[in-house]
Amino acid sequence: MKPAAQPEDDAYVLADGTRKLVDRKKVDRPVLLAILDRVDNNADLTTAYFTNFVS
Amino acid sequence: MADVPARPFRQVLLKLHSRCNLACDYCYVYQHADQSWRTRPKVMSPEVIAAAADRVAEHVRSWGIDAIAVVLHGGEPLLAGPEAVGAVTRAVREALGGAVASRFTVQTNGVLLDQPMLEALRRHDIGVGVSLDGPAQANDRHRRYAHGAGSHADVAAGLDRLRADRFRHLYRGLLCTIDVRNDPIEVYEALLAFEPPTMDLLLPHGNWTDPPPFRVPGDPATPYGDWLVTIFDRWYDAPQRTDIRLFSSIISLLLGGSSGYEATGLDPVDYVTIETDGAIEQSDALKTAADGAAGTGLNVFDNTLDEALAHPGVRARQVGLEGLAESCRRCPAVRVCGGGHYAHRFRAPADFGNPTVYCADQLRLIDHIRDRVFADLRPALPATVR
Hints:
Chain B: Keywords: Iron, Iron-sulfur, Metal-binding, S-adenosyl-L-methionine. The structure holds two protein chains of two kinds. Chain A has helices spanning 16-20, 30-41.
């Protein structure tokens, strides 16, 4: 199921290099676009990111 | 483990009040192994508040942190009253000084969200997260008063007041604990009806020794995974943008980002709890594992928060792969799953070196989200690398 650009040994986590190839104009999913932006802009989120919730 | 540097706390839970006006049957504070609430003060005293505020400020200064999140927690924190809510907020802000941003929220059952309380929360700029398990029949299975009546109607009224124009900006979201007997879409739509900016769907606490409801340890059936997948598809396919923490976190990890959440991924856990008596503790959820499991033996009068960072329980949750069970380290999904919630890995008498008891459910959900996300991304990649 992984894109061919992904390393063979990682079927789950998209490599930075693969993510950078994603053409955002071809992603028709608001939630996915929002999280792509979040990943690009917040490389070092901590577990306190969702500060309003603690489980 | 010693090679992995410690990360500072960026979120502090202040247990403003240790009792509750509800008697939810699954509560991790009262209904599980740890019974330390019985011997703690009901309310955080001014002395504890002052010492806690000083410790937080000291920690922030020593690490050069520019922002800290503070969650007023309980029990039911609003039982402390509007004055106490204001006092604790003022104390922390004054101790921090002007150079550090502080973000306050309260996690409440919503029953006490009346006009005077909402005015106090507004005055002190405290965001509000509310616990609600869905429609009345779902919520009131567990979230009841001590006399047996359900809480849904009172919580709904509190949420309506919170969503009024004057207070809506304080509204942070809803926390829902899953009961797989409830229809997932009915639950999701009932939560959406309250227009939360964010919500989360929590796995009920349990472990290998004291399993969660309807979860047989080691069984390949995935009742929770299936339940969550149903909501994921509804959420992912809809145009609205209510964030669901668990799903967003998994997508973020699949895209190579951070989790932002303690129950997924390998990011170092960076929050700490201060109890009403000043005890410095780990995650509250550990109270479901064993009596005293959340304890560190430290307190704000005698110890710094840096000392808590060195506690083995805290360290174990800051060292990524190294802190996981061998079977987790070999799992191809480990960077997304992260071994699951630490409390769910427990096996008596004191073993956290296991996969989460929800391993099969978690993998079912992660695989489903991965397949959907990668299917969406493939057409957006150059043909040569699809």
